[in-house]
Model the fold of this input.
Amino acid sequence: MLNELTFSLIFVLLYIGFGILGKLKSIELVIKLSDVVVYVLIFSISLWAGSSVSFSDISSILIYSILGSTIVIIVTYSLGFLLNQKKEEIKLRRKDIASFQYRYGIPFVLGWIVGMGIRPELSYGTLINIELLFLASFLGYSTSKSISIDVIRKSLSKGGLSLFLVVIGNLISGVILYIIGLGNLKLDEIISMGSGWYTFTGPLVSTYYSPYYGSIAFLINFFREQFSYILIPFLLKVKYSPYSAIAVGGATSMDTTLPLYIGLLGDEYVITAVFSGVTLTAVIPIILPLMLNLP
Done:
């Protein structure tokens, strides 16, 4: 298995290199293949976890995951209380989000079932490292299509506020996770800084910590996305703060939680949500591997 620094450098170079290629020529088939890589990664991390984690660990994984995701959401949104925003009537449009849950939930559950049932002995660290490098290539290629000068120019200031809330909320949440006993501080900050990108954060943490912590990292960020649909409408009624609402979605504000923001906040906040999500999607694959090298 590659050491952390070598892996970080290769990952970043692949991400940037294929991002440049994606800008020069976009092939739809290649973009669609990135989903396949994600499914394989989710299955692999779950297979590793199911093969390594005892039945007694399952309850603690769920407790830490649900508690951790709730902490991130509440802390991030609470930062918006410092902003002076006019309260408005909120009406949530019903959207079909089941497909997002099934697409990633099925390989996750299937991997756990196969792992706990068969417990195959594989070189999981090396396997997931290879899959992550494939992911870097496909992500760089596919996300380059969403990143443009026009998007950055139109929403830099507003999106910047949401990004600021995301980063500060993540940092504070990481400290709280450490206080309640979830691993060491660096691990907790990496998990929190995942910003809802569970398909990247989970495999990364599994490779360089353990399948146990990888599962928690996956689920904390997974539940961050899912609980957003439940908690954000309520939080907006308590204190209207659209920028902190967008911050709660993290990297998912550009896609899976975007319908939520359209329904709750209106079209005027779409560019801000997309910019925030796109920026996080661009920098998280660079920041998290580099955080692995912190003392």
About this structure: Residues 87-97 have pLDDT under 50 and may be disordered. The CA atoms of residues 57 and 223 lie 18 Å apart. The radius of gyration is 18 Å.
